[in-house]
């Protein structure tokens, strides 16, 4: 789906946004009939309240939406989207004393509130439409919403219909839409092309592993996005229990997120040279599955002892990162649904990230706060590198002990990036476990909007 604002000449019903603190003052400016109606219905500007004000012919003249107090807005992103979801139909325009950032958040949240995943059940329903508020870049917000919806669709699609080949098709469709070049290395050709760990992880499945390599743009700074595309993760021979396997269709959430981010970049015509690398595999079980105790040699020559076949994401990413590092970009971003340790640390809502670049970290954090796409910087704590050095090989893919699992995974990936000057790794969840305004339960993009917002500042420094 492609969320759009209503045409500018459409007749629209005003939506007045009222805070709790400003309610009494605002109410005093209304005529007596309106005041009586508001008070009779108990509206006081509380967060998420909605009240339709009738015209003399009983049609809807205006809609009031409660924006609550500052603490309510801090606790709930896209609060205005709650109104859009309740209004269900019609065309509206926003009215209220909002800052530029608040207005942009409200408008984007309204667009995203229209998202629903209907591939297997139901039909898409036209919801309440919004006229683009004055002062915002409507086409940019539409591009952001479209990229986010692409990410959600890809994650929500079950592995039966979203294997490595289907993920490749999604990338090819995106490339075709924007005139990007795409090259795919598949199956045993991965060995000839020196992607041994992507091949090792994916060879047990009858759905061939592959490396997707997409390039777009001819001018400007060079940006490489690398996304983990494990389309389903059984855990391999270290088989996951059933409860842990239930959500593993989302283990390609890193790939889905970088495709959504790439869509934002290309749709808006951002001046840069973009490369997207996705190692797409299914971690399956069969007689030729890679084994605990195996030692694999990565693309860059580092040897890796396999102490858990369920720590496969870092293996396929390692080959892709090593390839990217051979042609260093000005900025490289890695995104992966990599560790449960990250969820224990920060929960499902925050996107933890790792970088040694303080200026990059600050730009990302500021952008995340500005666009309400929350991030949290985690430490690349070098003393923990001894945990990923097993002695029998250069690296250990699953250090024993259970401590600092997200950090050691990030340190593992960092070994494959040596020549790229600016690098950040995101250990995302890619799933919203509880419905929230503009964010239904299911697949969700994390950090893409923040990265997109930060790019101009990052690439200018």
Explain this structure to me?
This protein has 461 residues and is an alpha/beta fold. It has two domains: 13-114, Leucine Aminopeptidase, subunit E, domain 1 (3-Layer(aba) Sandwich), CATH 3.40.220; 141-460, 3-Layer(aba) Sandwich (Aminopeptidase). It has helices spanning 23-27, 32-40, 70-75, 79-87, 100-112, 138-156, 164-178, 189-192, 196-202, 242-245, 253-267, 313-326, 340-346, 358-370, 405-414, 448-460, and strands at 13-19, 50-54, 60-68, 91-95, 129-130, 181-186, 210-216, 222-227, 229-233, 273-283, 295-297, 303-305, 331-336, 351-354, 375-378, 395-396, 423-427, 431-432, 442-443. The strands form four sheets. Strands 6, 7, 8, 9, 10, 13, 14, 15 and 17 form a nine-stranded mixed beta sheet that branches. A five-stranded mixed beta sheet has the order 2-3-1-4-5, sandwiched between helices. Helix 5 (100-112) links the parallel strand 4 (91-95) and strand 5 (129-130). Helix 7 packs parallel to helix 11 and helix 14 crosses helix 16 (448-460). The longest helix is centred in the N-terminal third of the chain and has 19 residues, at 138-156.
């Amino acid at each position: 789906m492609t969320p759009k604002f209503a045409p500018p000449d459409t007749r629209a019903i005003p939506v007045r946004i009222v805070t709790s603190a400003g309610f009494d003052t605002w109410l005093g400016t209304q005529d007596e009939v309106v005041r009586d109606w508001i008070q009779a219905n108990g509206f006081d500007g509380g967060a998420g309240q909605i009240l339709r004000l009738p015209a003399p012919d009983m049609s809807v003249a205006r809609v009031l939406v409660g924006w609550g107090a500052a603490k309510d807005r801090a606790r709930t992103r896209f609060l205005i989207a709650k109104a859009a979801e309740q209004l269900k139909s019609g065309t509206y325009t926003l009215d209220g004393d909002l800052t530029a950032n608040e207005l942009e958040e409200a408008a984007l949240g309204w667009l995203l509130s229209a998202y629903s995943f209907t591939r297997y059940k139901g039909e898409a329903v036209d919801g309440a439409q919004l006229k683009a508020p004055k002062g915002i870049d409507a086409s940019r917000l539409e591009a952001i919403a479209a990229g986010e919806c692409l990410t959600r669709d890809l994650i929500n699609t079950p592995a039966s219909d979203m294997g490595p080949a289907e993920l490749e098709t999604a990338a090819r469709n995106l490339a075709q839409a924007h005139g990007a070049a795409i090259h795919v290395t598949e199956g045993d050709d991965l060995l000839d092309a020196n992607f041994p760990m992507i091949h090792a992880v994916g060879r047990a499945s009858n759905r061939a592993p592959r490396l997707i390599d997409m390039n777009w743009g001819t001018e400007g700074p060079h940006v490489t996005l690398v996304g983990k595309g494990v389309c389903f993760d059984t855990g391999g021979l270290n088989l996951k229990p059933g409860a842990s396997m239930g959500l593993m269709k989302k283990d390609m959430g890193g790939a889905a997120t970088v495709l959504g981010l790439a869509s934002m970049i290309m749709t808006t015509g951002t001046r840069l040279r973009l490369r997207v690398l996705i190692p797409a595999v299914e971690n399956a079980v069969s007689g030729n599955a890679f084994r605990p105790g195996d030692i694999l040699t990565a693309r860059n020559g580092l040897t890796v002892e396999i102490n858990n076949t369920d720590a496969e994401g870092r293996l396929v990413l390692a080959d892709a990162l090593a390839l990217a590092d051979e042609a260093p970009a000005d900025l490289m971003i890695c995104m992966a649904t990599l560790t449960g340790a990250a969820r224990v640390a920060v929960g499902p809502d925050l996107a933890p990230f790792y970088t040694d670049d303080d200026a990059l970290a600050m730009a990302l954090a500021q952008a995340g706060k500005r666009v309400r796409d929350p991030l949290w910087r985690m430490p690349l704590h070098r003393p923990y590198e001894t945990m990923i050095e097993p002695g029998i090989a250069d690296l250990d893919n699953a250090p024993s002990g259970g401590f600092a699992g997200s950090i050691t995974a990030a340190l593992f990936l960092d070994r494959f990036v040596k020549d790229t000057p600016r690098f950040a790794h995101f250990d995302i969840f890619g799933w919203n476990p509880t419905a929230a305004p503009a964010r239904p339960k299911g697949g969700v993009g994390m950090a893409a909007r923040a990265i997109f917002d930060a790019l101009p500042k990052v690439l200018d420094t």
